[in-house]
Amino acid sequence: MTKEQLIAKFKELYGADGEVRAYFAPGRVNLIGEHTDYNGGHVFPCALTLGTYGIVRNREDRKLRFYSANFEKLGVIETSLDELVPDEKANWTNYPKGVMWAFEKRGYKLPHGLDILIYGNIPNGSGLSSSASLEVLTGLILKDTFGFDGVSMIDIALIGQDSENNFNGCNCGIMDQFASAMGKKDHAIFLDTNTLNYEYAPVVLEDAKIVITNSKVKHSLVDSAYNDRRQECETALKELQEVMDIKTLGDLTEEEYEAYKDAIKDPIRQKRAKHAVYENQRAIRAVAALKDNDVELFGKLMNASHESLRYDYEVSCEEIDILVDLAQAMPGVLGSRITGGGFGGCTVSIVKNDAVDHFVDEIGKIYEEKVGHKAEFYVVDIGDGAKTL
Ligand code: ADP
Ligand code: MG
């Protein structure tokens, strides 16, 4: 839907009077550095041109009215600035409400209500961070509407994470909101999640494209396993801290990990920590490879990332492994891996331009034969972070 169509829909729903404003916040894909963002490591995400749009108008009272064109059946959901508490019945509006709650918690009082229409073109629940884009979108709406000039885009990312952690009960790291708030066209963000130091790296793939493949599966394990992995890594870190002076697993080189790993008493925890350490180093190496225009090496590190996520971190699944195995074996594919939290969702692959059609046709066909439903493919461009339209 275009901005004009969204504004027309807004006026049909809420009436034609008054000035409306339009905003956009992107989803993201992480190129490498997976499950490192809560382990004090590096990540390397980029914002997509896919994302979430918001049309907004001020109200004079304290009412909030929300409508999502993606959840038409739910119609307009009404609440107020005096009811910023999580509520199952509030459904998806818990995301924007959580961001409002987090602003107020920081002392940014919201003086009046809003009418809001949302529309997103990112598949929900596929690991491309539609939830973070909705949070960052809401943050930008509040900053712009109420003139909160002291709130930076990084603050908006942190506020989004706070709301997702503490209002919506998902213990995510900072990567997704950071990428949505801070993305830059044709660049990925090399982010140290321990310090929030970051650097934009141009993604110049010359004769190749980023292709995202959506497995269209999401196994119910995802939330509990995510929390288990966090717990396992926290425990492994504590065990290592008994014998060495580190703050996070991201502080370790591979050699240090190998020298001290026996302090971790459980073999499963050892594998989890190994992934966190090696994946962080892989991300650092991959960014250096990209700077050297060595896209081939970047691709190989993506393949190694998948192997580690599959066998050491154990967050892949059969459907995703089918997609990655097919991709990695195909001529013209430089690298392929699972992206996002795991247990379904999407893969990200770097595919030579002249191999993209074959990639989509061939993998699409074999995946459907093996799994019984179609995968979806998105040949994506790297876009800017959240903005007013
Ligand atoms: P992901 O962030 O990987 O896409 P999540 O399960 O974290 O998956 O977030 C998906 C949820 O975010 C949806 O179920 C919905 O509640 C909310 N959401 C995302 N996009 C929209 C949208 N366009 N309109 C309304 N809610 C949305
Ligand atoms: Mg999410």
From TrEMBL:
The gene is galK. Catalyzes the transfer of the gamma-phosphate of ATP to D-galactose to form alpha-D-galactose-1-phosphate (Gal-1-P). This is Galactokinase. GO terms for cellular component: cytosol. It is found in: Cytoplasm. ATP binds at S68, G125, S126, G127, L128, S129, S130, S131. Belongs to the GHMP kinase family. GalK subfamily. Its EC number is 2.7.1.6. One of its GO terms (biological process) is galactose metabolic process. PANTHER family: GALACTOKINASE-RELATED, MEVALONATE KINASE/GALACTOKINASE. It catalyses: alpha-D-galactose + ATP = alpha-D-galactose 1-phosphate + ADP + H(+). Pfam families: GalKase_gal_bdg, GHMP_kinases_C, GHMP_kinases_N. The record marks R28 as: Transition state stabilizer. Pathway: Carbohydrate metabolism; galactose metabolism. One of its GO terms (molecular function) is ATP binding. It is an enzyme of class 2 (transferase).
